[in-house]
TrEMBL record, chain A:
Belongs to the binding-protein-dependent transport system permease family. Keywords: Cell membrane, Membrane, Sugar transport, Transmembrane, Transmembrane helix, Transport. Residues 91-303 form the ABC transmembrane type-1 domain. It comes from Rhizobium herbae. This is Multiple sugar transport system permease protein. It is found in: Cell membrane.
Automatic annotation (TrEMBL), chain B:
The chain crosses the membrane at residues 18-39, 77-101, 113-134, 146-167, 188-210, 248-269. This is sn-glycerol-3-phosphate transport system permease protein UgpE. Keywords: Cell inner membrane, Cell membrane, Membrane, Sugar transport, Transmembrane, Transmembrane helix, Transport. The complex is composed of two ATP-binding proteins (UgpC), two transmembrane proteins (UgpA and UgpE) and a solute-binding protein (UgpB). Its main location: membrane. Part of the ABC transporter complex UgpBAEC involved in sn-glycerol-3-phosphate (G3P) import. Probably responsible for the translocation of the substrate across the membrane. Belongs to the binding-protein-dependent transport system permease family. Residues 78-269 form the ABC transmembrane type-1 domain. Gene3D superfamilies: MetI-like.
Amino acid sequence: MAEAVVSSQVGRSSRALTAQKAPPANINASQWRNALFIAPYLFFFATMLVFPLIWGIWLSFHKADTFGVGKFVGIANYVRLFSDKIFLQSVGNTFYFVLLTVPVLALLGLFLALALNRQTRSAAFLRAAFFSSSVLSVTIVTLIWRIVFIPDFGLLATIYGWFGLPGPAFLSSPDLSMIAIAIATIWWCIGLPMMLYLSALQQIPGEIYEAAALDNANRWQTFRSITLPSIKRTFILVVLIQVVMQFQLFGQARLMTQGGPNNTSKPIVMYIYDVAFKRWDLGMGAAASEVLFVLILIAAMAQFLLTRKRGEN
Amino acid sequence: MSNVRSTSIMGREFGDRVVLALVIIFALIMLAPVLWVIGLSLKANAELMADTNSVFRTPYTVMNYFNILANSSVFRWILNSLIVSTGLTIGTLVLCSLAGYGFARLNFPGRDILFVVVLLGLAVPEQAVLIARHQIFGILKLHNTYQGLILPGLSAPFGVFLMTQYFRAIPKELDEAALLDNASRFKIFWKVLLPLTVPAQATLGIFTFLWSWNDYFWPLISGTKNTMFTLTVGMASTQTNFAQSEGLGFLMAQAIFAGAPILVLYLFFQKYIVTAVSGAAVR
């Protein structure tokens, strides 16, 4: 490291001396062999991502099962998909789940970030506590939350019991199952929005707040005219990351409710899993994956366009 | 004037108290399930079946944890997870460092288009490639092998993006100086620049390890034999006959047993994990 710094100084002076004679360093020249550094990664990118992506699109227009790919069937898989009530229900469930989780994550995350954006030790401890659940695997999260929700033995059932009330069957009620999954998901995912807001808040220069204090601006005015405009972009970012992430709900639903009761908590990804890896109807599973892909692309495009606009202003 | 200020201070104190109260309530909601699980894990199964309120009374026991140690599968799963996560982490660091250096520093035909293509890969959700990849791996007989669990993760574009950004931030004078000393491209990469990227390596490494450790979907469909389960999948497989077969206390002890090492890892590497996660999102 020290060597590098020294040689850089030497290099700078010797470069100055030879500036007129020496041609520009040939490292800047466009050469095929430079691509060798990229090649190893590119091999995996092409074989594990690009190729399966194209194969997946191709598969969605074919009849395919475990024994191999059959004949070309045009859009038959898509037609079957959109006439399957359970698929349409799973799309509805996924949108419902996104509506349940994303606003809470975006607003609660903002609240926590604002409350914990200070240099005290207790704030640091609480930040770590609110983020810690994010590092757990979905298996552990669902294990914890099933034991909160299950009837008779669950934490909520116990708390209801203290008041002499029968606890509702959260996971087996059609009205409550998705809400229960949403609560567990919010508990699991709240750390990331909070951290994103915190890093945005820390980029606001302190002088602006001092100036506002000198102007006798009250807390609400300061928040509205300084804090809020500075984190607008982050807010959009958080909402769209969460939309994309929560669209891909799978593990929580599979492990907490198995998509039940009566498919009321089955999301799109779980539908894909059931069709492709339980019924082995790979063509139709691929078609469902492409629908999900398009939905996520729309969300990603919206993010791109919205943040672009902000940047131009 | 002074009137205005005093009411605003009053308002401030009241507002502070409301905020503090809310934060404490949310913190309790965060912690309560975990405390509940720890409590259950320390109770005998039979006692819990009679009344879960017994959690608030003695006697406590660590028998459930000993029972985990008696279940040999768990150790196999931990070993599998360690092999897969370590392999993927090392592979990702090597591939992404090389590619990051290439994209940031070297010129070759089509470089900029290629970089955009790799970045577009970030927008592809795993589900869009899973089924085809599952078929390809079936043909190549890679299911239920460690390679089969590791290889797909090596294609993740995030690391390339992160390392490219990091290499770009290093002053170019460093390589130009080395170039005048007739160092090869690889030598510049290996001797001069790579040592400077250690913080980015740490961030990317921990992020990859955690991601791989917690990954659920691909190991679920690829490693389908009990002996090839990762810890995440294996723990999920024991949950099917919840409470009835294994006993609440035992299941809860499993949750703590599996979660604790990752939480300790998080506490140690908090800084890097937070950077990685925020970086992953800002991309």
